[in-house]
Every structure is written in C-alpha cells, then in structure tokens.
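Extended Data, panel c. Modelled sequence:
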Amino acid sequence: MSYSSFLGEVKKGLPSNNYIIISSDPFLHSEAVSAIKGLIPPEERDFNLHIFDLLSTVETSTPFENIIDTLNTMPFFTGKKFVVIANFQKILKKDLLILEQYLTRPSESSVMVLMNNGAAKKDVKDRLKGLKQIILDIKSNEIFSWLKEKARALKYELPDSAAEYLVGTIGPDLGMLSSEIDKLSLLGKPKIEKKDIIEIIEGKRTFSAFDLVNAIKEKNIEKVFRIYKVLKETEEPYSLLGVLNWQYSQFMSGKNSSQDKKHFHKIFSDLNKADINIKSSGSSYPMELLLVNLMK
C-alpha cells in the first residue's frame, strides 16, 4: 500500500485494528501522526491518542506491558482509542513476544499503529500476524501530486508549473517542500503561481538550482559557473546533488532508446562519483568537475 492508500484508510477512520507503517523518511511518520490526530476531536485527544516512542521508553525504562495495558483499556467517550508506537524497529525481543501474544486477541476498541523506520525485518513481519502494512515512501514521480494535495488541503491551488518549479528549486526533500507549501498558504491566494514561488523562496537570490540545470542543458559553461558561484554561497553540495539527481531522474522518464540509456547511465555514474568524492575530500572540486562532465 502507498501513501495515497494510507490517506484512503484515514478517510475511512482506520478501519483495521492493527497497522504497521513503514517509511525511510521520519517526516512521513510525522505526517501520518498528524493525519491520525485529525480523526480525533480535539477535546478527546488527551484521552484517546497515546504516542509511545521506543527510543525514549528504553531511556525511561517504561515497561512494554504499559503500552499493552493502554491498548486494552476502554476508550473514553464513544470513539476509538489510537495508540501509536514510534521507532518500532527498536523493539526488544522480549517485548516482541508480548506484542505477538497481544495480537492473538487484540482490543476491538483500540487502533494500534506501529511506525517502523526503514524496512521491517522479515522475521518480525512473520511473527506479527494480523498487521495491515502500509509503505509511506513517496516516489519521485508522486511528489507533484503529493504537493498539489497538500496545497488543496490548505485551500489553494498549485498548478503543475508551480509544483515543478518548487521541486526544481528546493529539491526532493519532503520536509522542506512541506514547509514551503505552508509558507505559500500565508499569501492568502486561491491559486499560487510560479511567480509567487519565486518571490517567496528566491527572495534576493539571483539564481536557483533550477537555473543551474537549465544552464547545464544549454552547455553554457560560463553561465553554469556563474550560477554555481552564487548557489555555493547558500547551498550545501549535497543539496545541489539531490536536486541534480532528481532533475535527471525526471528527464530520464520515457527515454527508452539504447543511446538515451547509455547517456543517463553516464550521468548517474558521474553523480555517484561526485557524491563519494565530496564525502571523502570535503572540497568543492568534485562538484565543479561534475558540472564540467555533465556538459559533455
């Protein structure tokens, strides 16, 4: 199941009693918790929403049995009780056995949501029967629709051109993109255009990573390094690499000829080498060499 499938489950009130939500991005776990909160009236959240973090429970020596007791306690008022267990990948073996026993007779009045950072271990999934698995990771080709949906939730429209420019400028970091979507809502406009994003995000900055990619495509070496000189004052090399990687992933979509595949294989090989060399050297030279190679 995908992120959109999770939203579908939320709209139905999370009808299953037990879920495991898997994501490599902690931001998406935060998004999931926010969606779950939206299911509970504000006046009931103190009673019917319980969030346990297995990292902090280890530090505070909170027994796992306490979490099970919370699941088995009847909810206040008439709604369901939601129990979120964050960092489930850190569960201890002895606690896994306790949870395994709970799942043989789970509470009908509680919804348990396990938040697993990264792929769940096969033996864990095999032992925990009755869990509905949802994978929250958003693929690069789903980012646009995700952005448009977030904008729609904030009561404004985000056209394709604006969404493309936003991702091209910020990169594929979902947390940063979400923050910018929130900022754009403060404009109070029913529709946010590309020019609005330029004014808010770019500010006084002359160029963006989007401009750098266009200059590379033009093979204009003077323009490329003029833009790069500005960007390196405010952008980390990893941020620029992330944007370049995302942009070329978009360009590769639909390119099926052997010549195209060979061309993009070289590009991603160059990006990977630059990433390794930047980490090992700590200098800007690998990034500059990458820009030259991308124009060949």
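The two ends are 41 Å apart (CA to CA). This feature is highlighted in the accompanying rendering.
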